[in-house]
Amino acid sequence: MNKLPIPEMIRRAFSALPFAYAPYSHFKVGAALLTEDGEVYTGCNIENAAFGPGNCAERTAIFKAVSEGKRDFLAICIVNENQDGGHDFCPPCGVCRQVMAEFCDPETFQIILAKSPEYYKIYTLAELFPEGFGPGYLKNE
């Protein structure tokens, strides 16, 4: 795999935080998704008073990219900001992991969890979603 532009992805994920709509949890999340052709799509979490209709930052970024014809992804960076302005590692929820499994190769897709530009961890989707259900299970052989 090509060397990921990690500093740029972290910067872009943090730049999505001000757009988060989190009036209930006050927990903002930003994401930056890297496509195979080098484009970056950002996303933020969008809450709803009914809770269920909300959307995570990761899915926002993925859905934006897919809606514009992109389907090949290399990596995603995820950052957060709590109500006190602090940052911690913010792994994707199960629903987001399932959406990633639909579009990404679990063995190669990289998930970057960042507290800051200097402090981050990288996992593959397979590490965070072992034995995940993906499109391969539905192929007729």
Automatic annotation (TrEMBL):
Its EC number is 3.5.4.5. One of its GO terms (biological process) is nucleobase-containing small molecule metabolic process. It comes from the Bacteria. Gene3D superfamilies: Cytidine Deaminase, domain 2 (3.40.140.10). One of its GO terms (molecular function) is cytidine deaminase activity. One of its GO terms (cellular component) is cytosol. Residues 4-136 form the CMP/dCMP-type deaminase domain. It is an enzyme of class 3 (hydrolase). Coiled coil: none annotated. PROSITE patterns: CYT_DCMP_DEAMINASES_1 (PS00903), CYT_DCMP_DEAMINASES_2 (PS51747). Its cofactor is Zn(2+). InterPro entries: APOBEC/CMP_deaminase_Zn-bd (IPR016192), CMP_dCMP_dom (IPR002125), Cyt/Deoxycyt_deaminase (IPR050202), Cyt_deam_tetra (IPR006262), Cytidine_deaminase-like (IPR016193). Keywords: Hydrolase, Metal-binding, Zinc. Zn(2+) binds at C56, C93, C96. It catalyses: cytidine + H2O + H(+) = uridine + NH4(+); 2'-deoxycytidine + H2O + H(+) = 2'-deoxyuridine + NH4(+). The active site is at E58 (proton donor). This enzyme scavenges exogenous and endogenous cytidine and 2'-deoxycytidine for UMP synthesis. Belongs to the cytidine and deoxycytidylate deaminase family. This is Cytidine deaminase. It comes from Merdimonas faecis.
